[in-house]
Amino acid sequence: MVCAHILVAEDNVHQAELVRRYLEHDGHSVVVVHDGRAAIDETRRRNPDLLVLDVMMPLVDGIDVMRAIRTESDVPIVLLTARSTEDDVLLGFDLGADDYITKPFRPRQMVARVRTILRRTGRARETSATVLKVGDLTIDPVRHEVHIKDELISLTPAEFRLLAKMAAQPQRVFTREQLLEDGFITARTVDVHMMKLRRKIEQDPRRPERLLTVYGIGYKLA
Fold it and tell me: Which position has the higher pLDDT, 161 or 18?
């Protein structure tokens, strides 16, 4: 299976979450931004394996985002757009797009085309073991399943993203700001999700042994 770090730049929140959900189900780690300026900044900061880029975005549109990125990076770019004229498609390819997907699109086909580009460009790694284990806690990013010993734990997508992020680096202390990068709106929202996670993975949520608070800093998964 191909596994990659993918940046999705899409101003429509529902559409962005749909793309994120399908890409994560395919085994990728995904970060979402909602405007062109953030797309440029995050590409420079994260150096993703692939960028899924909407054309119509606030602050900086997708075409200008691609122009800026192509002066400094050859990251594969998949354009998502409602523009489907031949001139629009040719402009996208002339500026360096690797693929051009018109809306509305079928998410599974989008995922398959992303997978093909990643293999062709050698930007991602092949992996057959993406399961994360922390003590008796098992997190499967491909199946989006969490087990404690043999018991399946039901998590929301937001709870799963938080737990998987921390399980990838157990014992690391994550600040609320670092956890906010995954799409949470406020620091208080992170705290609420942590409280709900403790109810599901701790034997006694009032005395957590797995999901620990590091006072004044944030949280870690022990």
Answer: 18
Average pLDDT over residues 99-109: 88
CA angle 158, 23, 49 (to 5 degrees): 110
Which tokens in the block code for residue 111? 């995922």
Q: Which two tokens stand for residue 191?
A: 């705290």
Helix (H, G, I), strand (E, B) or coil at 167: helix
C-alpha to C-alpha distance for 32 and 155, rounded to whole angstroms: 20
| 28 CB neighbour count, 10 Å cutoff | 27
In the structure, what pLDDT confidence band is assigned to residue 97 with cuts at 50, 70 and 90?
confident
The CA distance from 63 to 50, in Å, is 16
Crossing angle for the helix pair 36-46 and 62-70, to the nearest 10 degrees: 30
